[in-house]
Write a structure and sequence with these properties.
The chain has helices at 2-72, 90-93, 96-100, 145-150, 237-244, 256-269, and strands at residues 134-137, 174-178, 188-189, 218-223, 228-232. The chain is α+β, with helices and mostly antiparallel strands. A 5-stranded mixed β-sheet has the order 3-1-2-4-5, sandwiched between helices.
Length: 276
Amino acid sequence: MRAASRQSHCSDAVCLKAAFNLIELLVVIAIIAILAALLFPALSSAKAQARKAGCLNNIKQMQVAWHIYADDFDDLIVTNSWAPGDMNSPSDATNQVELEQGLLYPYCKSPGIFKCPADTARNPKSLVLSVRSYSMNTYMSGYDTAAVLENVVGIYTVVRKRSQIAAPPPARAIVFADESPNTIDDTNFGITPSMLEGANHSPINHWNNYPTDRHKNGAGFSFADGHVVIMKWTGQLLKSLEVQAIPGNYTADLDGADLNDLRMVQAAIALPPGQN
């Protein structure tokens, strides 16, 4: 009887110990879950900051290449068709060789420079992971969107040399833009100026091409004086368009904060002479 009692007692102890260990395990799991919930937002934020820094570094290197090209060609700006390929085309959108054939590639020989680190989704037009995220201001050795799209001729200047950049001045003149995957196709960032000054035309209150919203309600830009920034949006439209991932230009008129975002970019695209 005593032996049996001891065996029964030992069995109860084992059961109690097992139960206690299970409770301990559950507590540890709960603590890990709490810590993970606290740490994941911080890790996500750090990852977003790293991608933003990577994007700015890419645009900076492209901007340096843009300047070196002009140094080599008697101040002439590289043409707006600085790389072949259309991001609408799956074969072009995945063709790294086309980047290597571009006019800027000899000055920044790394295909990764042309791709924003935060541009990780399939392009909504070509349905592939594209090799390029950036395009160049149409008024930098491109074409006059005011003349082509709105028949307003002679108000805005398409500059061919760095020395011609005056309206806006180099510190406020966009060169490269982190374009939305919804509108990126060729290497031209086609924005029509506001028409608020110097043009007998109603204001332009809509985007054609438009920038991305990849960087927490912002996009990367470089300027003709060499500096780069993440331009922050105060409206919600660009964020909404990014989420919707509907390919094509946006031509609906804007108001409020969304219109302010458009005006901020338009003022850095082109101004009438003297309006700087």
